[in-house]
Each structure stands twice: as C-alpha cells, then as structure tokens.
Amino acid sequence: MIKTLLTVSISLALTASAGIVHAEASASGGKAKAASCSGCHGEDGNSAMPGFPKLAGQHKGYLVKQLQAFKSGARIAPMMAPLAAGLDDQSIEEIATYYSANKISANPAPVLPANDDDDDAPAKTDEQKKAELEKLIHEGGDLYRNGNLATAVSACVACHGPFAEGNRPAAYPSLHSQHADYLIKTLTDFKTGARSKSRENMMHMIATKMTEQEIKAVSYYISTMK
After folding, report:
1. How many CA atoms within 13 Å lie on the side-chain side of 4?
2. Is 167 helix (H, G, I), strand (E, B) or coil?
C-alpha cells in the first residue's frame, strides 16, 4: 500500500514538474516572438503610449481569442492584421502565455487633456480642474457599478468584476490600470460600429446607448483601478 502511494506521489510530482517546465518554455518562447510587439505594447506588455493597450496581466484566453480574430479578419485592425497573419496557433499560445504572466503597471494620477478647456472661456484654476476630474471619476465609478437604468446601459461590474479583473472562463478582459485614452477609443469604436456592428455583440449594444461623457467618465475611472 505504502509502495503504491509512493509511486502515485512521485508520478504526480513528475507530472506537475513537467507542466511547470512546459509553461516556462512556452512563456520564454512567447517573449522572443513578442519582440516585434514591444514598439507599441512595451517590452513586457506595459505600453507607455496611451493610445495602445497594455497586454501585461491580461487573461490568456482573451489574448488568444483576439489574436485569432486579427488573423482571421473577424476583428478589423489594419496594424494588427498583417502581424497576426504570420502567427501559427502555437505562436499565438506562447505570446498570450508570456503577456498573461506579466504584471500590469499602475497608471500615474490622471489629468484632463488641455483641449478640454474652451478657448473662449476663462482659464480654469488647478483647483477647478481637480474638482472637475474628481467629479468625472465619481460619475465613472457610479456607471461602472450601477449602469444607467434610464438609458438601459448595463453596469460594467456584471462582466468585468468589482475590481475590473475580468472573467477568465468567459474570456472577458481585465480592464483595471488600462490607459484611459485606449478605453475611450475602444468604447467609441464599439459605439460607432468600427469595432463591431453585430447586433449580437454585447459591447456594441451597450456602447451605442452611452453618451460621450459616460464613455469618458467610465474610462477615466477604470484607468485608476488597480
């Protein structure tokens, strides 16, 4: 009996070790294959440019799904399509494994862009700008948690979680610490149909009901979440 248990224990240990080695090899291969992505997304997936998404810490399943969509043309993206076209399934898996294993970086304190000021209006003081930003983030937090019942905008928390951690089994993306500019662009693209015009696409259905102010508010709020 003891001999049998010992054999089983050793077998399980070897299986676990093999899995760890495979995961490390996969992540290592992904790092090399992701080198061409670093110009936009950062070496470790933490993009320094607010117009490009951070990929670090994103769910592997979501990354795989998006790369496959770029490759097949299901998701239209002139910059990503030619890059994804040259990736086989193993490369996609390895790149997704690499980025998902990295930690997303927190954003610096947000500031409203200068062009938010009306040229004909008196310049706002720092205190006024701070109060405006705090109000915007508060509105975004309320929308994220509760949605807008009057316009049937669903609460983001339902799919993306209380901490914007996403939903791994459902392949809903993690959003916390993402760039506000990228989130604004993404929601706007869903709203206009540039990302998807499918009536069955959940994000398209939600974004079409959102105002520009709501898109901006919730994007700024999510960018502050850690």
Report:
1. 1
2. strand
- pTM for the whole structure: 0.84
Helix axes 60-72, 89-101, angle to 10 degrees: 140
Burial of 16 (0-12, 13-18, 19+ CB in 10 A): exposed
The CATH class for the domain spanning 12-101 reads mainly alpha
Each domain of the chain, given as residue ranges in start order, spans 12-101, 125-224
pLDDT in tens, 68-102: 999 998 888 889 999 999 999 999 999 999 999 99
Q: In the structure encoding, which two tokens stand for residue 136, read together?
A: 């915007």
Q: Is residue 121 packed enough to be buried (19+ CB in 10 Å), middle (13-18) or exposed (0-12)?
A: exposed
DSSP letter assigned to residue 46: -
Residue 121: C-alpha distances to residues 124, 125, 181 (Å): 8, 12, 25
DSSP class of 193 = T
pLDDT confidence of residue 183: 98
132 contact partners, CB below 8 Å, separation of at least 6: 112, 124
Report the candidate in 90, 111, 101 with the shortest Cα–Cα distance to residue 46.
Answer: 101
pLDDT for position 116: 57
Closest CA to 203 of 163, 158, 165, 137: 158
Fold agreement (12-101, 125-224): yes
Query: Dihedral angle at the C-alpha atoms of 176, 99, 207, 138, nearest 10 degrees?
Result: 10
Q: What CATH homologous superfamily does 125-224 map to?
A: Cytochrome c-like domain (1.10.760.10)
